[in-house]
Amino acid sequence: MKSYDIIVIGAGHNGMAASIKLAQSGRKVLLLENSLQPGGMASSHDICDGFKSPTLAHLVNNLPSKTIHELNLTKFGLETNSHIIPSTCINSSGEYISVFNNYKSISENLSLKDKENLKHLIKRLTFQSGLLKRFLFDTPVNSNNITFSKKLKFLKTGFDLRLKGKEEFQEFFRMILMCVADVLEEEIDNDLLKGLIAFDATLGINLGPRSPTSLMGLLYKISGEFNGQRGVQVLPKGGIKNLVDAFYKSSISAGVETIFNQEVDSLILEDNKVRGVKTKDGQEYKANIVLSSVSIVKTFLNFIGPKRLDTGVLRELNSLRYKGNVSKLNLALDKVPVSDFLKLDQLKSRIVYAPSIDHIEENFNPSKYKELPKDPNLEILFPSIIDETLSPKGSAIASIIVQNTPYDLKDGWSKSKEQFCENILTKLELIFPNLRKSIISTQLLSPSDIEDQFHVPGGHWHHSELQIDRMYALRPIFKFSNYNTPIENLYICGAGTHPGGGVSGISGINSANQILLNHQ
Amino acid sequence: MKKDFLEKRSHFKQPLKVTPFYEKFLGEMTEGYWYDWSGYKAASVIQDQELEYFAIRSTCSVFDISPLIKYRITGKDTENFLNKLTVRNVSLQKINTVQYTLWCDDNGNVLDDGTLFKFNDQDYRLCCQERHFPWLLDTSLGFDVKILEETEIISGLSIQGPTSASVLIKAGFKFIEKLKPFEMLQADNQVLISRTGFTGDLGYEIFLPNNLSHSIWDKIWEAGKNLGIKAIGFNALNIARIETGFVVANSDFITSEHAIRNNRARNPDEIGMSWMIDMNKPFFNGKSALANIRKKNKSRYVFAALEVDGKEPADGAIIYFNKKEEVGIITAATWSPTAKKSIALASLKIPYGHKIQSNLWVEIYVLRELEYYKMMKKVKIVKAPFVKLKRRSVTPPESR
Q: Shortest CB distance from B138 goes to which of A272, A315, A486?
């Protein structure tokens, strides 16, 4: 039986980030990965020969310079002058608007009033999300972890908010629990613009634009940065695969030993202490510290098991909401798609099909009743048009995120999947006529496929719902929010912990810091 | 439709349920003194509290324990499940025995205490004071067990006192003389007799399906006629249980689900139940919290048995150190007719009752003809029980 200082489970970006930090401190780190390649939900695969498609995540919106710097990502191939992707919101009759850089510059076809109002709104939201952003790299407080400096930080944040003036102070508390639709309707007239922002606020969570607190999703998104640029969507040069490779190479250089194709079966516990990890094929790896970057639900209910957990904790875990509602459609196309409405340049943007707030809300409604939307909202990206290395010349990859597709469909996914895929393609052909003819390969990943393929119970891309009741100190639950668990020396990180999803590696870094603090 | 509607909502006419023995106790009742026990109408006093107490100690008392909350737990993983639920080691319990036990929440605070009856490795009955069905179900996650709430289908009688064995033998219950304390036997398929009780005396508890309740009562009552049988209420039992040092949930300690203020719940060490906890078990609810509490000496209270100077019962009195500093409270007190002393159970703040055992006083207020007499009485910490009876454990019991 091999023994290590620390075992990290799951080579997603968070698992790798934590491993790098831990290995940098001189500890002997083993990283165990279930699949054959690193990256987890940010990994890529060949949908057919030569077509390297991002399997799930296709854009980065939160990779702070601190992450890039601490993990040496630039040294291992990440280019900081990556493609900043504009957003184009389109409706089925071909009207569209384009938005650049954190909604800051907008295409001409927007009224002057909207432009002015948007500028003010985004400025305000950027300020508000900046307050949240301060806590990204913090270990959240909980009952075991309230220090003077943390209290001071809260106090200072409140103070800074107040210093911004009475109006901003009041607006913060007025808006923080609002729904995104109300906020947008106060300020903006253009349906497409409202649709785009509302889509961004609600993508990935089980809220519609008119659900209370849905503005929080937007604040969360805007709190992201890429190497200093706030609220941008970025496609790393060489695709998201290149970013994952940079993580992986950095981990190798830091001395992390990664073993692929190792499915963890259980944790080895001695009394209340973790002693190592047992894999499905019976291998045992010893370490006195284990960090799990996989879903909280899987870590506790599968690796440890309900029999070994206090009933109160079990109740809290069972009440976590972890059913995903996002599907992913990957297409390999033998021709670069042509649109009657969009120029080639605009195909290099993130094309959002979310014509209006009402359209999104109407799409969200059936998901409450475990039904599929009739005209789903989409985020369409052609990574290979932006970065030509990703597919053979003259061909293209379409990477499409489909919103509001509930995990536990009433009729079951196996029955509905094919028809649903057809519906999406038909809708796509309104914008890209003859798209269907150029398809070489189609892959639709429903939340239940995501669950199977990435071993995330519920197939939720944030591991569990990222709403205001499950943020900061409440993520994943109050008891575990400082990356510790009731099992001694078992730590957690990953999208299910603070600060949540997105390819950022932040929770990995935070939990590694927590481990280093506890085991000096 | 209308009739149905009224029927469903007629519960207000009868705020308290009655047990299958209700008519039988009502027949003996002269005092009309009832109280609410878990939603059941239960007797505080039937005829005379003192006479009922002396029935427990010198002849034979019958107390209705039907309102006890009862769960039947069956299935392959029952033992493992109970080992997770409770703090004691269930694997050590023998078939046909009864274990006094308790269970904790995640923070190591006591949820309830109760008795666990083992029929076989895959079949147990848990009796307790409070309802715990959701807690049991949530705890059973991952275990192959079935949990049945049988409070309303199983009734029970507690037969306690020196002549109780003779009464039951005369009533036709065979082999009960062989039962040692905490052993049980099934009289036939449906009637369970255990040598258990809440009095510290010789005594038995009988559990049976509701439909047999009247016939069994009649048999026992007939058999007890010349052996001093007497129906009793809780007040008499309460004196006997204080004499024995038994605690009552939500009276001597607040259970964690009832505690509203967050320092009111108690861990087992704080209610004198340390002996129960088996830290060698691989896991149970609250184990790591309790280990932590012990490691860091975080227990804040001790539970103590006290003898109080004088003869006034010290119910609810505050305990003082050096007649000045408040250091605890009396949770139950009585004049013990058997020990001939004023006795009490109390919760004391550490270090009082722990390292500091002397110079403790209680302040007792006695109302005499519209004038309060305030007394400072010295208390002495003693070891429970206050009354220790040989006949409680002698097997076979003396026949009378």
A: A315
Round to whole Å and give the CA distance between A90 and A341: 9
The CA distances from residue A171 to A104, A128, A223, B197, in Å, are: 21, 9, 18, 66
Q: C-alpha dihedral over A145, A146, A152, A154, to 10 degrees?
A: 90
Q: How far is Cα A66 from Cα B67, in angstroms, rounded to an integer?
A: 64
Whether A270 contacts chain B with CB within 8 A: no
d(CA B313, CA B341): 9
Exposed, middle or buried: residue A251 (CB in 10 Å: 0-12, 13-18, 19+)?
Answer: buried
* CA count, 13 A, side-chain hemisphere, B285: 31
User: Is A243 within 8 Å of A394 (Cβ atoms)?
Assistant: no
Q: Are A51 and A395 in contact (CB under 8 A)?
A: yes
Best of A272, A310, A480, A489 to disrupt the B interface (most B CBs within 10 Å) is: A310
- Tens digit of each residue's pLDDT (9 = 90 or more) over A418-472: 999 999 999 999 999 989 999 999 999 999 999 999 999 999 999 999 999 999 9
8 Å CB contact of B285 and A313: no
Distance from CA of A357 to the nearest CA of B (A): 41
Strands B203-209 and B318-321: unpaired
Who among B106, B141, B283 is closest to A312 (CB)? Answer: B106
Cβ contact (<8 Å) for A310 and B285? yes
Pairing mode of beta strands B229-231, B60-64:
parallel
Q: Is B144 on the interface with A (CB under 8 A)?
A: no
CA gap B235, A266 in Å, rounded: 54
pLDDT tens string A61-95? 999 999 999 999 999 999 988 889 999 999 989 99
For A318, which residue in chain B has the nearest alpha carbon? B138
Give residue-wise pLDDT tens across range A29-47: 999 999 999 999 999 999 8
The verdict on A144 touching B (C-beta cutoff 8 Å) is no
Q: Is A271 on the interface with B (CB under 8 A)?
A: yes
SS3 A209: coil
Average of per-residue pLDDT across A199-212 = 95
- Under a CB-based contact definition with an 8 Å cutoff, are residues B115 and B100 in contact? yes
Residues of A in contact with B136 (CB under 8 A): none
**Going from the N-terminus, what domains does chain B have, and what CATH number goes with each?**
18-68+152-244 (3.30.1360.120), 69-149 (3.30.70.1400), 300-382 (2.40.30.110)
Mention every residue, 6+ apart, whose C-beta is less than 8 A from residue B197. B158, B160, B203, B204, B205
Residue A257, φ and ψ in degrees, nearest 5? -95, 120
The ranges assigned to domains in chain A are 2-42+67-79+240-321+464-518, 107-226
Per the structure block, which two tokens stand in for A24?
Answer: 């940098």
Nearest-CA distance B81 → chain A (Å): 8
Helix, strand, coil percentages for chain A (3-state, nearest 5): 40, 20, 40
Query: What residues of chain A lie within 8 A of the CB of B143, using their CB?
Result: 307
Q: Does A486 touch chain B (CB under 8 A)?
A: yes
Is residue A322 within 8 Å of A41, Cβ to Cβ?
Answer: no
User: What is d(CA B134, CA A318) in angstroms, rounded to the nearest whole number?
Assistant: 13
Is B142 within 8 Å of A315 when comparing Cβ atoms?
A: no
pTM of the full predicted structure? 0.91
Distance between CA atoms of residues A475 and A465, nearest Å: 9
Residue of B nearest to A488 (CA): B288
Reference B101, options B346, B275, B282, B239; nearest CA is B275
Nearest to B141 among A271, A306, A312 (CB): A306
Task: Provide the token pair at B210.
Answer: 């509701």
Is residue B114 within 8 A of residue B102, CB to CB? The reply is yes
Please give the radius of gyration of chain A, using alpha carbons only, rounded to the nearest integer. Answer: 22
Residue range A2-42+67-79+240-321+464-518 forms a domain whose CATH class is: alpha beta
